[in-house]
Amino acid sequence: MPHSAASEPVRLDKWLWAARFFKTRSLATEAVAGGKAHVNGEHAKPSKALKVGDEVRLRLGPYEHIVIVRALADRRGPAAAAQALYEETPASQEARERLATQLRLAPPPFVYEEKGRPTKKDRRDLSRFIDRKRR
Predict the structure, then answer these.
(1) How many CB atoms lie within 10 A of CB 84?
(2) Does any domain span residue 94?
């Protein structure tokens, strides 16, 4: 579970998995390799060694988490223990809540469904509509 402050550093991908940001370690590795994580303002590799006090900036979908590492762990534990591994900055929480509200209030995107040719019923309805307009 959590290491003591004097223990050895932990790989970034292992820590993100242990802190429950990702369901599997391979997903964490892919995200970090894809540029979704920065440590102390610099692009990080999955093998980057984390220390207590490091700032991790992580983009998950439209949301960005900015967390301070409070404890190190290389094993995944219960959710309560995972939340003790980091502290999210107030600015990060506020920005995520603001974005969530914007996304919730935004109109749904227009989706055009192309159905193909009109059916016989569609053609009859169209003919009736056109006939009514001509009268």
Answers:
(1) 16
(2) yes
| 2, part of any domain | no
The predicted-structure confidence for 63-77, as pLDDT tens digits, reads as follows 999 999 999 998 999
CA dist 19 to 3, 39, 47, 76, 110, Å? Answer: 13, 15, 16, 7, 37
8 A C-beta contact, residue 68 and residue 55: yes
- Other beta carbons less than 10 A from residue 124's beta carbon: 11
Q: Say if residue 5's pLDDT is above 60.
A: no
Whether residue 34 is predicted with pLDDT greater than 70 in this model: the reply is yes
Q: What is the pTM of this model?
A: 0.74
Return the SS3 of 90: helix
